[in-house]
Amino acid sequence: MPNTNPTDDVISKIADYAVNYEPTSELALETARLCLMDSIGCALLAMNYPACTNLLGPEVEDTVVPNGSRVPGTRYQLDPVKAAFDTGAAIRWLDFNDTWLAAEWGHPSDNFGAILAMADHLSRKSRSDSTRQIDVYKVLEYAIKAYEIQGVLALQNSFNRVGIDHVLLVKVASTAVVTAMLGGDVQQVENAVSNAWLDATLRTYRHAPNTGSRKSWAAGDALARSVRFAQNAMKGEMGYPSALTAPDWGLQDVWFNGEEITLERDLDAYVMENILFKVSFPAEFHAQTAVEAAFELHDQVASRLDEIDTITITSQESALRIIDKTGPLNNPADRDHCIQYMTAIGLLKGSLSADDYEDEAAADPRVDQLRDKMVMQHDQRFTDEYLDAEKRSIANAVQVRFKDGSSTENVTVEYPIGHRRRRDDAKPLLVDKFRSNIATQLDNERVERLSELFADQSALESTAVDEMMDLLVPAIE
After folding, report:
1. Cβ count near 328 (within 10 Å)
2. Alpha carbon 283 to chain centroid distance?
3. Are 59 and 82 in contact (CB under 8 A)?
4. Distance between CA 68 and CA 469 in Å, rounded?
5. Is the pLDDT confidence value at 4 over 70?
6. DSSP H or E run through 30
7. How sure is the predictor about 62, in pLDDT bands with cuts at 50, 70 and 90?
8. In the structure, what pLDDT confidence band is assigned to residue 218 with cuts at 50, 70 and 90?
9. Which of 42, 145, 186, 303 has a Cα at 20 to 30 A from 267?
10. Which residues are within 8 A (CB) of 442 and not within 5 positions of it... i.e. 6 or more apart?
11. Which pLDDT score is estimated for 462?
12. Alpha helices in 96-234 (DSSP H)
């Protein structure tokens, strides 16, 4: 029997937006194209890492799924639930996909795992029914919605402060848009989304002493759940209208001591328009500008490592809370969330790649020698401007002092290359990143076809989703 209690306002607004909003922002649609391109590239690059690929594929070997969803960079065609897991895990694996930072942080491109899986399945099903296939335009439209739901929820609600992992917001956003993709009405989306809110999980695996690879597949897990919630809602499964506000047992009372979960602004296309790209190197975003500063200092310090006395990194409060780490780093998941490690690599090499988080690179004794000389300090201006809606900076500064009393300049980088304020500089680099990433899995012909397709907004939007996904299948070796 359906629950007839009033639905929480936040759940109602998300559901109405997911079903009824139609994007009109050309900037948002253009940016969504770049986000899709970048996410696919990140997924294909992850196919080079066995820790990721070991998790991919059907739950039962050799299972055939009619009209199944492709997993980019593989030959798998799976049911949408497992395809959402696989695609989401691959996009997220190397911490190279786009980012959103506010009171909460996260990676809205995670949502492509569920959106692509469901869109591909529906497009193939339509083709088999001899009806119109789903165009990539719909993928971009639903991406704008998912980004907005996740990102606006993150503006003022800090889930990490109470120990909840930010993939909860991915789960809520993808559940809303996938239910809408399936033809759900507002009530059905509300039912599905309320179930997603009940799925809050701990973020233990993101922090020492338990940092581990689950942080790389946590989004995939959330996406698989979102597809399941959407499918259940379409079959009539009930919702929980006061999942947030119910006394004693609702999310607000259990996790937030009664503090209200809010939507800081009306849902539109703000998040997509202002998304942050990881352009030139994979690093947790709060450290991106520190790494850029380290690159700038590389030539001055690389030949004087033994002369270094201290290295001062000045940062924002969020970075100090989540990626300031001392002591042993046990695995790549630990290293790519340590600002000192990433800065040390930047000073040593003048570059940073996914391979630099692997055990072989970490075994270089100079890395920990530099980490031991690092001092972290807070700049309140950096924190204030990080939270300022008109700026959204992610500033860091790095300065190296030598034993003879001399020092480098204090190099400050306010906005990383992937910030909206530097978008024009980033676009050609994003294209280069995409070509380089997909070339690790695809032949030259497909690299060229995909590069041409993603360079043409109109052509991409009018392409059937399943046709695009078929271009992402590697040739048989």
Report:
1. 9
2. 12
3. yes
4. 11
5. no
6. helix 26-46
7. confident
8. very high
9. 42
10. 44, 450, 472, 474, 475
11. 97
12. 112-128, 136-156, 167-181, 186-197, 214-234
Query: What angle (nearest 5°) sits at the alpha carbon of residue 51, between those of residues 440 and 98?
Result: 60
CB distance 298 to 346 below 8 Å: yes
**Left (φ > 0), alpha (ψ -120 to 50) or beta: where does 358 sit?**
beta
Q: Are 283 and 178 in contact (CB under 8 A)?
A: no
Numbered ranges of CATH 1.10.4100.10 in the chain? 9-273
Q: For the chain, where do the domains classified as CATH 3.30.1330.120 start and end? A: 285-416
- CA pair distance 34, 355, nearest whole angstrom: 24
C-alpha closest to that of 370 among 309, 320, 328: 309
CATH number of 9-273: 1.10.4100.10
Residue owning tokens 């299972």? 63
Q: Which two tokens stand for residue 372?
A: 């031991």
Tell me how far apart the 2 most distant CA atoms of the chain are, in Å.
77
Q: Which residues contact 262 (CB under 8 A, 6 or more apart)?
A: 10, 156, 157
Q: Which two tokens stand for residue 452?
A: 């041409």
In CATH, 285-416 is 3.30.1330.120: yes
Whether the Cβ atoms of residue 111 and residue 150 lie closer than 8 Å to each other: yes
| Cα dihedral sign, 161-164-170-172 | negative
Record the tokens describing residue 280, joined without a space.
Answer: 């030139």
Q: Would you give the DSSP letter of residue 264?
A: S
